[in-house]
């Protein structure tokens, strides 16, 4: 009986990478292809570019497993896809092309990030990441999920509303309130905004 890849446990898929078995790529594509395509397409707004990023994600996973052995394969692949998509987005916008949710999402959170020198920037970035993690950890699960859908996965307002059974207006207002709470939370912790 042939084992279904989409049902394969992540640890088995990771082991395929470690064994240098090319079936790892098929198993990854079958189980996480749509997930990665969604991330890339939300950032890039273009199916062809999204597919290119996802193919690059598989190659990057192949080249990095080993030595890495991620605990959560979906998160590992999602992060690779997201980074590759941002890189391609930067190249595309430099060429006056592109689309997707990136400009809208970045406009929403631009006030939460301050511009500093390089050394300070790295230190501030680490502290900022920890503060945002702490803030998100204190939110109810549904609000945290909505925030992450918008600002990590770059989901559109309408997709989030549909997914959570809400109106577009409710999601927009909720995200605005969460950004304001995050803004105040960061100010209270000494971040310059």
From TrEMBL:
Keywords: DNA-binding, Sigma factor, Transcription, Transcription regulation
Keyword Transcription regulation: yes
Keyword check for tRNA processing: no
Signal sequence bounds: none
Residues covered by the RNA polymerase sigma-70 region domain: 32-93
Listed Pfam families: Sigma70_r2
InterPro entries hit by this protein: RNA_pol_sigma-70-like (IPR039425), RNA_pol_sigma-70_dom (IPR014284), RNA_pol_sigma70_r2 (IPR007627), RNA_pol_sigma_r2 (IPR013325), RNA_pol_sigma_r3/r4-like (IPR013324), WH-like_DNA-bd_sf (IPR036388)
Family, as annotated: Belongs to the sigma-70 factor family. ECF subfamily.
Matching NCBIfam families: sigma70-ECF (TIGR02937)
Name the record gives this protein: Sigma-70 family RNA polymerase sigma factor
Organism: Ruminococcus turbiniformis
């Amino acid at each position: 009986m042939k084992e279904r890849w989409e049902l394969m446990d992540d640890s088995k898929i990771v082991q395929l990478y470690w064994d240098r078995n090319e079936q790892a790529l098929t198993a990854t594509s079958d189980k996480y292809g749509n997930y990665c395509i969604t991330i890339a397409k939300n950032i890039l707004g273009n199916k062809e570019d999204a597919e290119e990023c996802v193919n690059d994600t598989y190659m990057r996973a192949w080249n990095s497993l080993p030595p890495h052995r991620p605990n959560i394969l979906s998160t590992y692949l999602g992060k690779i896809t997201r980074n590759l998509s941002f890189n391609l987005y930067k190249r595309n916008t430099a060429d006056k092309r592109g689309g997707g949710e990136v400009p809208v999402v970045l406009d929403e959170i631009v006030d939460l990030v301050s511009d500093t020198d390089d050394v300070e920037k790295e230190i501030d970035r680490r502290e900022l990441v920890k503060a945002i993690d702490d803030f998100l950890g204190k939110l109810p699960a549904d609000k945290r999920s909505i925030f992450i859908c918008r600002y990590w996965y770059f989901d559109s307002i309408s997709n989030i509303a549909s997914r959570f059974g809400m109106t577009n207006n409710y999601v927009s207002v909720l995200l605005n309130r969460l950004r304001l709470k995050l803004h105040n939370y960061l100010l209270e912790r000494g971040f310059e905004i």
